[in-house]
């Protein structure tokens, strides 16, 4: 299964050279997805102006983690990593369908198979989009786009050989996160001197929680939609079978009823259950859940830097008092100060950009959502009016 | 009696004929049930419009009330009749009946089925689970809903019975509608869902035996019978899925309402004013849509499920009635051939000049002509019944149209807000 070429995002920053990244193709194999990452660039670092490589999900994660671990990037919002491609649920459904083939009519089976295949394709398209968005965000960032690992990721046409984390490393990560959240609590409690950051902290904490809640609830809602949609499909094909049986006095009305009813039923429900519309909202929320987490992580790093700076100050005072290792303490303090100020400066800009991006993304999605809903509803109306016409004509 | 054109609007859902359904104890979330009852009265005018022979009888089943306590408790319904027919004791009257009384009526009518030569509309099925809950207490929403579904089904059942001119004449029907104290029906166990099926199967076995003896021109019946059987099976499967859908939709309503609240919270914490407003409005739209769906759309499938259930049972009765129809057809054919013979005899007598025998022959011809007509009418009645049922679906489409109108309004209001985000 391969995806059609998705749209590319053109990145053009005034003074810098052009760097355009997209995922031009993708292939879904049994247990992995292979993305073809296509780059167009006038940057001097690259050997050619246009080239492609094949990457897998783990390599994206490697790239993301390398950003996170890089001290230099402490002051930036690291674009969130794309989620792992997950076709398990879809595959399971297809398998169950195959097993249950004997118990349903040919029409029912075909219809269900089509639905499941469409679902599989939708998931596939989404995972491609998520991976692409990640790359585009990196390419759009004035600093990250220059990252060496990023360039290697884009250009090196061999396997990057980034094996997944082994158990020990996963455990280390786990503990790191535990410490972070414990620290996070401490940091959240301390009031920041800087108004801007204090406001941002309060805002982000609340926003993040609410996005998380909205995201979870939209997922539940979508699951209900899917269940109802599956029922509708079964009903529709059942009615269709009934209707296409031998036409007699008894069956003629069902025939008329089932074909039109089927269509109007389906379309009516589609107006509410259409995967496009609701998933749009759900995907938006999920993405901003990850983004707001990344923003929180930035604030956390700044807070840590602040703590380190304050500790360094205290150490310097102590050293001066004892008149021992003063130079060392001074150097250390200066480093911490510098680090903290650097982070604060870039963090401020990052957070402002985040806001702008967020508002623009929501606007775009909400407008598209409303337009889609209207389009469906209007089409639906026509269909129903048609059905009414047929019914009236027949009685 | 009712205008043949009506402007569809939510207000039109108000019941117009007999008493409105008594509001249940709580301010209930079960608007679906209210709509179901108003749907019934909404649908009846449509039906009467189209019925070729309409009789001036209106029946309604209302005011379910729990009588007694514990496991012996039952629900009594008010059965109200409004009529202009002289054979009833008055123009407007009502009695109290319980579920087993309805079943008892059906049993009495079935026994006399051959007399009527038509489909005896079947009553709703027994439900031990549903009734046990009600016996325990009528206050929780699922009991309330169960009682309401049953009430509506009983009403439809009675309405079908009285719309058969032949059944209306039946003394048992009249007794059911009029008599203050009806002796308790016994042996209604046979009329549980399974029992009903058994009865139908017995009838179909009898029919099967008969078809073997039929000559070639009657294979039409055999085919018909098979079709109906297949159809019934399909419909049963369908009914299961529709029930599943009704439940999933309920779930969906709940989840969407919860989501709308969450979205509103998110809007609150958003610090861009326009975006905040847009999110709040989106939350409102989602909420309104679901309310709309809960009140009307959920009930359309609910109603569909109910009607589907009715239809399945009706088909079952059709199957059971096939032998009647076959006999009607036979009688009709025999009557026609006898009529033919009589006419030939008459012609012969005319030539032979035997006046009294001629008169007798003439009378017999008239009698047989009437019979032929009667049997032909019987034969057509089944098609008529089905046709009436189908008419109900027309209103269903109207409902859907109303909903979609509303949806469009909501989204058209939201779009400019979304565009205003900056």
Automatic annotation (TrEMBL), chain A:
<keyword id="KW-0175">Coiled coil</keyword>
<dbReference type="GO" id="GO:0005829">
    <property type="term" value="C:cytosol"/>
</dbReference>
<keyword id="KW-0653">Protein transport</keyword>
<dbReference type="InterPro" id="IPR015404">
    <property type="entry name" value="Vps5_C"/>
</dbReference>
<dbReference type="InterPro" id="IPR042136">
    <property type="entry name" value="PX_SNX6"/>
</dbReference>
<feature type="domain" description="PX">
    <location>
        <begin position="13"/>
        <end position="160"/>
    </location>
</feature>
<comment type="similarity">
    <text>Belongs to the sorting nexin family.</text>
</comment>
<dbReference type="InterPro" id="IPR036871">
    <property type="entry name" value="PX_dom_sf"/>
</dbReference>
<dbReference type="Pfam" id="PF00787">
    <property type="entry name" value="PX"/>
</dbReference>
<dbReference type="InterPro" id="IPR001683">
    <property type="entry name" value="PX_dom"/>
</dbReference>
<dbReference type="GO" id="GO:0005768">
    <property type="term" value="C:endosome"/>
</dbReference>
<dbReference type="Pfam" id="PF09325">
    <property type="entry name" value="Vps5"/>
</dbReference>
<feature type="coiled-coil region">
    <location>
        <begin position="302"/>
        <end position="329"/>
    </location>
</feature>
<comment type="function">
    <text>Involved in several stages of intracellular trafficking.</text>
</comment>
<dbReference type="GO" id="GO:0035091">
    <property type="term" value="F:phosphatidylinositol binding"/>
</dbReference>
<protein>
    <recommendedName>
        <fullName>Sorting nexin</fullName>
    </recommendedName>
</protein>
<dbReference type="GO" id="GO:0015031">
    <property type="term" value="P:protein transport"/>
</dbReference>
<dbReference type="GO" id="GO:0042147">
    <property type="term" value="P:retrograde transport, endosome to Golgi"/>
</dbReference>
<keyword id="KW-0813">Transport</keyword>
<dbReference type="InterPro" id="IPR014637">
    <property type="entry name" value="SNX5/SNX6/SNX32"/>
</dbReference>
<dbReference type="InterPro" id="IPR027267">
    <property type="entry name" value="AH/BAR_dom_sf"/>
</dbReference>
Automatic annotation (TrEMBL), chain B:
<dbReference type="Pfam" id="PF09325">
    <property type="entry name" value="Vps5"/>
</dbReference>
<keyword id="KW-0333">Golgi apparatus</keyword>
<dbReference type="InterPro" id="IPR027267">
    <property type="entry name" value="AH/BAR_dom_sf"/>
</dbReference>
<dbReference type="GO" id="GO:0005829">
    <property type="term" value="C:cytosol"/>
</dbReference>
<comment type="similarity">
    <text>Belongs to the sorting nexin family.</text>
</comment>
<keyword id="KW-0007">Acetylation</keyword>
<dbReference type="GO" id="GO:0015031">
    <property type="term" value="P:protein transport"/>
</dbReference>
<protein>
    <recommendedName>
        <fullName>Sorting nexin-1</fullName>
    </recommendedName>
</protein>
<dbReference type="GO" id="GO:0031901">
    <property type="term" value="C:early endosome membrane"/>
</dbReference>
<dbReference type="GO" id="GO:0030027">
    <property type="term" value="C:lamellipodium"/>
</dbReference>
<keyword id="KW-0966">Cell projection</keyword>
<dbReference type="GO" id="GO:0005794">
    <property type="term" value="C:Golgi apparatus"/>
</dbReference>
<dbReference type="InterPro" id="IPR001683">
    <property type="entry name" value="PX_dom"/>
</dbReference>
<dbReference type="GO" id="GO:0035091">
    <property type="term" value="F:phosphatidylinositol binding"/>
</dbReference>
<dbReference type="InterPro" id="IPR036871">
    <property type="entry name" value="PX_dom_sf"/>
</dbReference>
<keyword id="KW-0813">Transport</keyword>
<dbReference type="InterPro" id="IPR015404">
    <property type="entry name" value="Vps5_C"/>
</dbReference>
<dbReference type="Pfam" id="PF00787">
    <property type="entry name" value="PX"/>
</dbReference>
<keyword id="KW-0967">Endosome</keyword>
<feature type="compositionally biased region" description="Polar residues">
    <location>
        <begin position="1"/>
        <end position="25"/>
    </location>
</feature>
<dbReference type="GO" id="GO:0034498">
    <property type="term" value="P:early endosome to Golgi transport"/>
</dbReference>
<feature type="region of interest" description="Disordered">
    <location>
        <begin position="1"/>
        <end position="26"/>
    </location>
</feature>
């Amino acid at each position: 299964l391969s995806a059609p070429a998705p749209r590319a995002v053109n990145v053009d920053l005034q003074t810098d050279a052009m760097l355009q990244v997209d995922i031009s193709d993708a292939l879904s194999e049994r247990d992995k997805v292979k993305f073809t990452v296509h780059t167009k660039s006038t940057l001097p670092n690259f050997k050619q102006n246009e080239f492609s490589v094949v990457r897998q999900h783990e390599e994206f994660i490697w790239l993301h983690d390398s950003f996170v671990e890089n001290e230099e990037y402490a002051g930036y919002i690291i674009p969130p990593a794309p989620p792992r491609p997950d076709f398990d649920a879809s595959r399971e459904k297809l398998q169950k369908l195959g097993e249950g083939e004997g118990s349903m009519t040919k029409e029912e089976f075909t219809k269900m198979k089509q639905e499941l295949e469409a679902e599989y394709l939708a998931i596939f398209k989404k995972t491609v989009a998520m991976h692409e968005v990640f790359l585009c965000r990196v390419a759009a960032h004035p600093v990250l786009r220059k990252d060496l690992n990023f360039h290697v990721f884009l250009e090196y046409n061999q396997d990057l050989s980034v094996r997944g984390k082994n158990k020990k490393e996963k455990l280390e990560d786990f503990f790191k996160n535990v410490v972070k959240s414990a620290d996070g609590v401490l940091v959240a409690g301390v009031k920041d001197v800087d108004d801007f950051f204090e406001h941002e902290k309060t805002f982000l904490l609340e926003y993040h929680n609410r996005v998380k809640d909205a995201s979870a609830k939209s997922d539940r809602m979508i699951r209900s939609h899917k269940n109802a949609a599956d029922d509708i499909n079964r009903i529709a094909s059942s009615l269709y079978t009934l209707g296409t049986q031998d036409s007699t006095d008894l069956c003629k009305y069902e025939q008329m009823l089932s074909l039109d009813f089927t269509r109007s039923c389906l379309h009516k429900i589609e107006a509410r259950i259409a995967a496009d519309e609701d998933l749009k909202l759900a995907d938006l929320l999920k993405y901003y859940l990850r983004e707001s987490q990344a923003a929180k992580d930035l604030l956390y790093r700044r807070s840590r830097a602040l703590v380190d700076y304050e500790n360094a100050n205290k150490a310097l005072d102590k050293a001066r008092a004892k008149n021992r290792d003063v130079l060392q303490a001074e150097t250390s303090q200066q480093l911490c100060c510098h680090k903290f100020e650097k982070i604060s400066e870039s963090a401020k800009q990052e957070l402002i950009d985040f806001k702008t991006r967020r508002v623009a993304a929501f606007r775009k999605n909400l407008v598209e959502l409303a337009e889609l809903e209207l389009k469906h509803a209007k089409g639906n109306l026509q269909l129903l009016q048609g059905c009414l016409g047929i019914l009236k004509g027949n009685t | 009696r009712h205008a043949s054109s009506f402007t569809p609007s939510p207000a039109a859902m108000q019941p117009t004929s007999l008493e409105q359904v008594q509001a249940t104890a709580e301010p209930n979330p079960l608007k679906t049930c209210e709509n179901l009852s108003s749907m019934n009265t909404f649908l009846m005018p449509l039906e009467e419009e189209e019925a070729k022979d309409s009789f001036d009888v209106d029946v309604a089943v209302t005011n379910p009330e729990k009588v007694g306590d514990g496991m012996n408790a039952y629900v009594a319904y008010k059965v109200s009749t409004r009529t202009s027919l002289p054979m009833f004791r008055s123009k407007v009257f009502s009695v109290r009946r319980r579920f087993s009384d309805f079943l008892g009526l059906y049993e009495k009518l079935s026994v006399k089925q051959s007399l009527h030569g038509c489909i005896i509309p079947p009553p709703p099925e027994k439900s031990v689970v549903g009734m046990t809950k009600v016996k325990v207490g009528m206050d929780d929403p699922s009991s309330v809903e169960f009682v309401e579904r049953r009430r509506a089904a009983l009403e439809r059942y009675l309405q079908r019975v009285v719309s058969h001119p032949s059944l209306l004449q039946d003394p048992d029907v009249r007794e059911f509608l009029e008599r203050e104290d009806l002796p308790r029906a016994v042996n209604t166990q046979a009329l549980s869902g399974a029992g009903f099926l058994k009865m139908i199967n017995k009838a179909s076995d009898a029919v099967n035996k008969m078809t073997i003896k039929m000559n070639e021109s009657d294979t039409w019946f055999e085919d018909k019978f098979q079709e109906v059987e297949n159809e019934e099976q399909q419909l049963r499967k369908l009914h299961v899925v529709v029930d599943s859908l009704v439940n999933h939709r309920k779930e969906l309503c709940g989840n969407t309402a919860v989501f709308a609240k969450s979205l509103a919270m998110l809007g609150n914490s958003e610090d861009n004013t326009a975006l905040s407003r847009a999110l709040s409005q989106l939350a409102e739209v989602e909420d309104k849509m679901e309310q709309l769906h809960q009140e009307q759309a959920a009930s359309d499938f609910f109603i569909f499920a109910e009607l589907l259930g009715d239809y399945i049972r009706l088909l079952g009765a059709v199957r059971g009635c096939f032998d009647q129809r076959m006999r009607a057809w036979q009688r009709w054919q025999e009557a026609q051939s006898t009529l033919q013979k009589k006419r030939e005899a008459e012609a012969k007598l005319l030539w032979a000049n035997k006046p009294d025998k001629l008169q007798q022959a003439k009378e017999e011809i008239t009698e047989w002509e009437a019979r032929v007509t009667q049997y032909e009418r019987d034969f057509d009645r089944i098609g008529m019944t089905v046709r009436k049922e189908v008419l109900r679906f027309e209103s269903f489409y109207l409902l859907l149209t109303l909903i979609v109108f509303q949806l469009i309004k909501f989204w058209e209001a939201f779009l400019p807000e979304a565009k205003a985000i900056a």
